[in-house]
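For practice. Supply one:
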Amino acid sequence: MNSRKATAIVALATAMALGASACSSSSKSGGSSSSSKGGAGKDAALTQIVNKSDKKGGTVTMEDSDVPDSLDPGNTYYGWVQNFSRLYGRTLLTFKPAAGKDGLELVPDLATGLGKASADAKTWTYTLRDGVKFEDGTPVTSKDVKYAVERSNFAPDVMANGPTYFKAYLEGGDKYQGPYKDKSPEGLKSIETPDDKTIVFHLSKPFADFDYLATFSQTAPVPAAKDTGATYVQHIQSTGPYKFSSYTEGSGATLVRNPQWDKATDPIRTALPDKFVLKLKVNPLTIDNNLLADNSTVDGAGAGVQPQTQPKILTSPKNLKNSDNSIAGATSYMAMNVNVAPFNNADCRKAVQWALDKASVQAAAGGGVKGDVASTLIPPSVNGFNKFNLYETPGDKGDAAKAKASLTACGKPNGFSTTLTARTDRPSEVAMATAIQASLKKVGIDAKIQTFPAGKYFSNYVGVPSYVHQHKIGLMMMAWGADWPTGYGFLDQIVDGSAIKPSGGNNLMELNDPAINKALADAIANTDAAARTKAWGDIDKMVMENASVVPLLWRKNLLYRPPSATNVTVTQAYLGMYDYLLMGSSK
C-alpha cells in the first residue's frame, strides 16, 4: 500500500458528513426483479437484500488492490477468498446466504445436515449429499473431502496459508506428515470414510465449535488424482456453480458456469450471473472510482473505500444512499513480537501501549466511519466481548509520562529503534502506521516503516518467524476478524502458541504463553455455553496483560453498492463485506 496520509480536508469532510442525515429511496433492477422491502437507502444492505432480482445473466466484476494469499480453497486464510471460493468450492457446511442476523446461521452445503457429535464432542460425523460432481463429471466422495483436509492442514511446506485447527485437534495430527510425504493408502487415520457418503472426524480433545470448522474452504473436496500441490490453484476442480475459464497469477481470473453443477443438490446458491471477472493489483483509488462510476460491481476485498474517497460518498446524498457502514467483526491492531528485542521485555511493550495516540490513528484511518477506538482484542460484535481498558489515557491520546516510566523500567530510558510493517497496497493501514510512528517518536522510540505487498505479507514476511527475527521486525500492523463469531473463533489463531508456523502464520506476536494456551483449550472443551462465553473475555484480558498486542480500532467498512449491483446484502459471517453467493449484476 502506498504511504499516504489522509488530508485535513478528508478528515473535515468526513466529520461533516457524519452529521448529515441519511437519504433513502427505492431501487429497482432491470428484468424480472423486485424492490427490497422498505426500499434501498443508506445502510439498507445491513438488514435486507437490496435491489432484489431473479433475472439470470450479467457479469459481476470484482477488483482487488493486490493478490490474494491463494484462490486455492485449501491454501487461503483471507476472509474475502473464503467468501469468494464458495462460488466454486462447496464445503461441508456454510453460512446461510441471507440478510442481517440470518446470515450467521449454519446450514448444510456439501453435507445433508449439521454434524452429529458424540456426547463428549470428540467425534463428529457428516453425510454427503447425492449427485454432487466435480467439473469433469466425476462424483464427489467422502475420500475427496478427507484428502482436502489432509493436504490443507498437514503440509505447511506446500500449503502455508490456512488455519491450523484440524492439525491441532485431530487425533495424530501432531505426527501426520500430510499426503505429499505420507503415501500410505489410509492417510490420517483419525478421519474415517466408511463409505462414499460418510466422513467421521475423531478428535484428540473435545471441540464444541467443530461445526464451524466444517464451513472452512479447507473442507471443499479435492480429487487426489488432480492435485499438483502449490500449482493446483492453476486448475482447481470446481464443485460449485462456477468454474475457472482462466486464471493468471497476479492478474486475475474469470469464472463461468459449471455445467456439472446441479441446482437440485444445492439449495443455497442462486447462481444468477453468467460470469464473475476478478481483476487483481488495481490501484485502490481506481477501485473506488470504478464503483462510483458503476464500472465495476464490488471491491473484492470488501474492506471499504479509501479515506480519500469517503467525502465523495459522505457529502453526496446520491452516493450516500448507496452506501453501507458495516460492522466488520474485526479489530485492527499492532503486534509486538516477543522474540525480537527489546519487545522480549514486557516493560518495553508497555511503553508502546502508553505512548500510542489512538485518536490520531483513528483519524488517519478515516475517522469514526472506519471504526471505534479499541481497548480489547475481541471486538464488540463477537460472542465473549468484555469491555475493559488496561491502558486508558485521556482522550485516547496516549500518556507520555507513563510511557517514559516504562522505558526506564525496561532499561531504555532514551528510547530505542525498531521496524514497523504495513501492507503496501492498503493506504489506510499505511496512514495508521504513520500516525503510530509519530506517537512513538514523541517518547524516543524510532519506528522505521517497512511496507510489503498484501498477497505475500504473511507467507513471505511477517508470518515467517525466521524472516522477522533476521530483520529485527518488532512491530507489525495487523487486522483480524473472527473465523466464526465466538471468542475462540477470534482468538485461537492469533494468540495460541500452537498456531505459530514456519510461514503463513497469524500469531505475529509469537505469543506462546502456557496459561493462555491452556485457557483456550479448557474453554473450547467446555460444553457449557455460558462458561465458554465468560472465558473468552477472561482470556482477552490475559492477552492484554501480556501487553504484546495494541488494539487500535474495532473496524467498520464504508461499502458502496453501484446501481447495477443486484441482490446486495452485508454478511457478518465474512467480516461485514457483501455476500458473494447472492450478488448479481444487471450489466
